[in-house]
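Ticket #4471: structure output looks truncated?

Reporter: J.K.
Steps to reproduce: submitted the chain below (84 residues) through the standard prediction queue, then opened the result file.
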Amino acid sequence: MPKRLFNWTFTDVEKFLRKNGFSLGNVKGSHYYYVGSKSRIVQVPFHGSKALKPRTLKGIIRQSGISQDIWLGEKGKKKQNEFC
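Returned output as attached by the reporter:
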């Protein structure tokens, strides 16, 4: 069952960004910087397999310039397909 802004891990965010045209720019400590079109830079913290906090994910969504509906729809589709 998808939980909207909850249960997104670093790996989920990384896969979503790569699928939407972002590539890894550089890494500084535990922060990964992804570069997309129109010189958008998205900072994603890496803390193992822990889920990102909702407010952190909202910041990532805002930095990416991709609609929140698209982000949440993608996670929901992924979960629904896993159960089928």
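Triage note (M.O.): checked the attachment and the full token line is present. The chain has one domain: 10-77.
Status: closed, working as intended.
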